[in-house]
Amino acid sequence: MLGGLISEELLHLYSYITTSCSLICNYFLIFVLIFTELNHLLTFLSHLSTPGCFRWLLFSFGVVGILTSLIHTWMFPAAHMTEFGYNFWGYRFLDKSTTYGVVGSLVWCFLFYQSFVLLAFHYVYRYVILVNPPWLILMRLNPWRNWVTVAVIADLFYGCEIVYLVKIDFANLCIRFIIVIFPLQETYGIDLYSGNLPGYLCLTYWIRSGDGHWEWTWIPVLSMLLTISIIFTAVVAIVFCIFRIIREMRKVLLREHVESNTRRMQRRLVRALIWQ
């Protein structure tokens, strides 16, 4: 069922262990954020902003981590690269209807890449609070309204991108079904002709024309590149914010009037940023 490389029981055990670790860590983070007062850190990070913004940003990151872990265990996702593109499906949805496979795969993709968007947003918030760049001064006028607006716009843009990607890839499902069925049957023993018609996602970079030549399918390619650019943008934002935050903290640490406790706390925050 799983290609014969690793036993199904071992992969399921791996899925349960990683999900359990993720749930424990994220539940602990949420518990700490709700039931404890982290004044020594949260006050420092939000002293120039509305109290509690940073706490709720961490809270949202933990919630997305929990949801991603649950959907991962629920569907056990897998991907396969072929000569024409990529296939994505959930092993635990192979005995379900097409709707389960398509919707489940779509939800997993959204939550998985949502983590990158949230992490980038997390660093941008820290950058604005600690560095206080003049070109983002408007974010400080009404922090709750402005930050929530930016977050909603970013999520809507990303969500629409995923929906559009799936829509165009399923626009010609008959051709894609013929291309997909043989690799999945030969490699994984997955029968797409079974009575329940299991659902999957398929991204085709090119297809073979009637005369035997390969033809690029440019719309799926461009849509996929745009989706990948979201992750690339998140990585660039994280790296940029890390360097700017470290540089700003070094300036603060060089000041003679800074107390030793503040110096230690800022050094620890730099290490936490890098580890995260």
From TrEMBL:
<feature type="transmembrane region" description="Helical">
    <location>
        <begin position="12"/>
        <end position="36"/>
    </location>
</feature>
<dbReference type="Pfam" id="PF10326">
    <property type="entry name" value="7TM_GPCR_Str"/>
</dbReference>
<feature type="transmembrane region" description="Helical">
    <location>
        <begin position="218"/>
        <end position="246"/>
    </location>
</feature>
<keyword id="KW-0812">Transmembrane</keyword>
<keyword id="KW-0472">Membrane</keyword>
<feature type="transmembrane region" description="Helical">
    <location>
        <begin position="173"/>
        <end position="190"/>
    </location>
</feature>
<keyword id="KW-1133">Transmembrane helix</keyword>
<feature type="transmembrane region" description="Helical">
    <location>
        <begin position="56"/>
        <end position="79"/>
    </location>
</feature>
<protein>
    <recommendedName>
        <fullName>G protein-coupled receptor</fullName>
    </recommendedName>
</protein>
<feature type="transmembrane region" description="Helical">
    <location>
        <begin position="144"/>
        <end position="166"/>
    </location>
</feature>
<dbReference type="InterPro" id="IPR019428">
    <property type="entry name" value="7TM_GPCR_serpentine_rcpt_Str"/>
</dbReference>
<feature type="transmembrane region" description="Helical">
    <location>
        <begin position="100"/>
        <end position="124"/>
    </location>
</feature>
